[in-house]
Design a protein that fits this description.
Layout: H1 2-20, H2 26-29, H3 41-48, H4 77-104, H5 111-132, H6 151-173, H7 179-204
């Protein structure tokens, strides 16, 4: 009788060991030994014959470093002065030609087309500041223009203004400048020389 009890206990113990590995439960085997809640990672590794797997690293959520802002660029006072000279001259042209259009008619030529071109020149000069992250200089006040009774009189003023604009760019381009500034200044000078000046000269009868 004792031998039967020992054999029964041994069988139940073996079944519970199997249950611990997930094949059976002790309740199914009728045993009295408690069943673990579930196989641990070590147990799972033992079943597969491998070692305990290491924790999988998760990608970092930190943002990638960004380049320094252009606002951090130090202002070059010499270049800034050259850019401001060009910008203020183009602003002055827009202001003067708007006055003529206000006096003689908003669509009168060649002032209407040239004023629109000068608006683009102002934007081109302003972008040289923006590219470097530099603040734009404020607008300045100008001496008042006379009243024009004829279109020819107004165009004569335009001739003088374009001559001054061309001379200004010739002076600026003689300085040591970055390539992008040279390109913009040359383009604006050539527009005055080959387009604006001839149009005003023709209008003024010169």
């Amino acid at each position: 009788m004792a031998n039967r009890t020992q054999r029964t206990f041994g069988i139940l113990t073996a079944l519970c060991l199997v249950a611990a590995l997930g094949a059976w439960s002790c309740e199914q085997a009728g045993g009295t030994v408690g069943t673990p809640a579930g196989p641990s990672s070590a147990t799972a590794a033992a079943k597969s014959g491998g070692s305990t797997p290491a924790a999988t690293p998760t990608p970092s959520s930190a943002p990638a470093p960004t380049p320094a802002s252009k606002k951090d660029q130090e202002v070059d006072p010499v270049l800034y002065a050259d850019l401001e000279t060009a910008l203020q001259d183009e602003r002055h042209a827009v202001w003067a030609y708007e006055i003529v259009l206000g006096q003689l008619g908003s669509r009168i030529q060649p002032f209407n087309h040239i004023k629109e071109a000068e608006d683009r020149h102002v934007n081109a000069a302003a972008k040289l500041f923006e590219k470097r992250g530099w603040d734009l200089p404020g607008s300045v006040s100008y001496d008042p223009l006379p009243s024009f009774s004829t279109l020819a009189e107004a165009c004569a003023i335009g001739v003088d203004a374009e001559h001054e604009n061309i001379a200004m760019y010739d002076t600026l381009l003689a300085n040591t400048l970055p390539d992008d500034v040279i390109k913009v200044f040359t383009t604006l000078r050539d527009a005055s020389l080959t387009s604006h000046l001839p149009a005003f000269e023709k209008c003024a009868g010169k």
